[in-house]
Amino acid sequence: MRQFAGLSFEQAVREYSQTVFSVCVMRLQNTADAEDCYQNVFAKLYYKSPEFSDSEHLKAWLIRVAVNECKNYIRKNRRALPIDSIREQAVEFDTSGIDMSWALMKTPPKYREVLYLYYGYNYKVSEIAAILKLNENTVKTRLNRGRKLLKEIYGGDNNG
Hints:
Elements: H1 9-28, H2 31-48, H3 55-77, H4 83-86, E1 94-95, E2 98-99, H5 101-104, H6 109-120, H7 125-132, H8 136-154
Antiparallel strand pairs: 1-2
Helix pairs in contact: 1-2, 1-3, 2-3, 3-7, 6-8, 7-8
């Protein structure tokens, strides 16, 4: 039986299902498209059977593959959806009791990704840089600019 950081395939899917799906929805802004990419991510895990040093390595790999799957999907399909039509599809994103999912969905994907990983999954800047294959300073800049955008969208200062 295949093992992924000590987990069976079924356990890995149960453990990281919400994380992968959330990343896909935040990137694609459409649940049907996100489901397609979600399935591709776990198919790649199953068929490629990479080695992982621990569960954090597995989680980071799944997020990286999800981001890449979404980028490929966008590149192939090149269609934009109005943000208002997907507001009800937003994955719950909560920071100190404030629902931020609708505001995140209005930010450009490059800011949305880093904000989501930072606040939604409590990754450090260095971890986000490794997952997204970006320079740490780029991540810091995107976090800063993303926070400013969220403040503008939210209409005030929200401890960003």
